[in-house]
């Protein structure tokens, strides 16, 4: 993914298109905060489908560029589960990861 400031790279009909990013009036690295702002009708943001789908289905968010998409690498091809190294093989961690996989598959995302 190109991370040039002020540029969004999207794909449409097999072409890579460069869009000028709107100048943000607000910026944060807190995803929950940004999502709350979107749900309050403030702003535009690219969201991973697994996160946006429930809000789109309920009409709480509206897709603005339905014919464009970002490379999966824009958000990472996977969801990362972080845990301490000594917890890798604990039953709780394995059950959580299995449950997350099942949930994403049920949503058509895994």
From TrEMBL:
Ranges for domain LysR substrate-binding: 8-104
GO annotation terms (biological process): DNA-templated transcription
Database matches in InterPro entries: LysR-type_TF_proteobact-type, LysR_subst-bd
Pfam families the record matches: LysR_substrate
Organism (species): Pseudomonas delhiensis
Cross-referenced Gene3D superfamilies: 3.40.190.290
Protein name: LysR substrate binding domain-containing protein
GO MF, one example: sequence-specific DNA binding
Family per similarity comment: Belongs to the LysR transcriptional regulatory family.
